[in-house]
Design a protein that fits this description.
Blueprint lengths: L2 E5 L24 E6 L5 E13 L8 E14 L5 E15 L4 E7 L3 E10 H4 L7 E11 L28 E12 L2 E11 L7 E2 L3 E10 L1 E3 L2 E14 L2 E3 L2 E3 L4 E13 L3 E15 L4 E3 L2 E9 L1
């Protein structure tokens, strides 16, 4: 079974004050989609992501733990030949724990719609496929401000943190490219995504972001089921954010994760589990530490 690895991204963290890291587990993060079957079938599914972060880990007073739990409904459609459209709607349950108290929030996050054009597909473009097959998709999309973004820095009952919000409050734009190389049961998948953020109504702008992935996978056929383990890397870089036109020095950062997972495919559904572990990172001038995270997803083909 030929597979296309689709990925826009996910990730990272938040800091103790409003000048928080733009690589985060909040609504500014991207989305990681795992392995999806390369076919013209439409798909609808659900997935669950859990992310954990620690801010000021060596301080007993400033230490903050943040847990992000995201349940997401996603779908994929092919309205016309070579065009793939995907849509995502997350529901978030987040928690911030400090030495003084625990703050929680839940609700819908920012919805995302992506469209990609299949500019290269040797399975479709050639009558006789060779030893290697190639797939290249190029496109982009938009992230809508459907999640709540509102905080008061002077209200002790709220989280005075731009990252600890259900949404970003801004309409943001995404460019992406996906390339997959297959030979037999082996495959190599790469992705590059660029996210351009705009300024929201509270005059806050998250830094623009660049994401990239490289994954190696192999499929094993067991009767009518295909089992596909994968290993790889995920990298992310975020620029500084701005507030009221002022550059926030303690925002932005970079991250490199190792990834590993396994996905089960049939003609009717797909089930996958993926884990990520940080290899190297520097977020918010080193004040934020990203921990391991996990993704579980289930999709139905029709």
């Amino acid at each position: 079974m030929k597979i296309r690895y689709i990925f826009c991204l996910l990730f990272t963290l938040t800091v103790f004050n409003t000048r928080a890291c733009d690589i985060c587990g909040c609504a500014n993060s991207g989305a990681y989609f795992g392995l999806l079957p390369q076919s013209n079938k439409s798909l609808i599914g659900v997935r669950y992501q859990r992310l954990n972060f620690v801010t000021h880990p060596d301080s007993k007073v400033l230490r903050t733990e943040e847990n992000f739990n995201v349940a997401e409904l996603y779908a994929r459609f092919f309205p016309i030949k070579r065009v793939q459209v995907m849509a995502f709607l997350p529901y978030r349950t987040d928690q911030q724990v400090t030495s003084a108290d625990v703050k929680k929030q839940n609700g819908f996050g920012d919805a995302t719609v992506l469209a990609n054009y299949n500019v290269l597909n040797t399975l479709m473009d050639k009558e006789n496929s060779g030893a290697f097959t190639h797939t290249l998709l190029v496109g982009g999309g938009i992230k809508l401000p459907t999640g709540k973004f509102k905080f008061d820095e002077n209200n002790p009952l709220q989280v005075a943190n731009a990252n600890f919000q259900l949404g970003t409050g801004s309409t943001d734009f995404i460019l992406n490219a996906f390339y997959t190389l297959n030979k037999g049961d082996w495959g190599l998948a790469t992705n590059v995504s660029r996210k351009f953020n705009t300024t929201n109504s509270q005059d806050y702008k998250f830094g623009n972001q660049l994401f990239g992935t490289v994954d190696l996978y192999k499929s094993f056929r067991i009767g009518k089921v295909s089992l596909t383990p994968s290993v790889g890397f995920y990298a992310e870089n975020a620029e500084h954010g701005t507030q009221h036109g002022e550059v926030l020095d303690l925002t932005g950062g970079r991250l490199l994760n190792g990834t590993a997972g396994v996905t089960l495919f049939t003609d009717r559904f797909t089930l996958g589990v993926n884990a990520q572990k940080p290899i190297t990172q520097k977020s918010s001038s080193g004040h934020v530490v990203a921990k391991e995270r996990i993704l579980v997803q289930l999709g139905f083909l029709f």
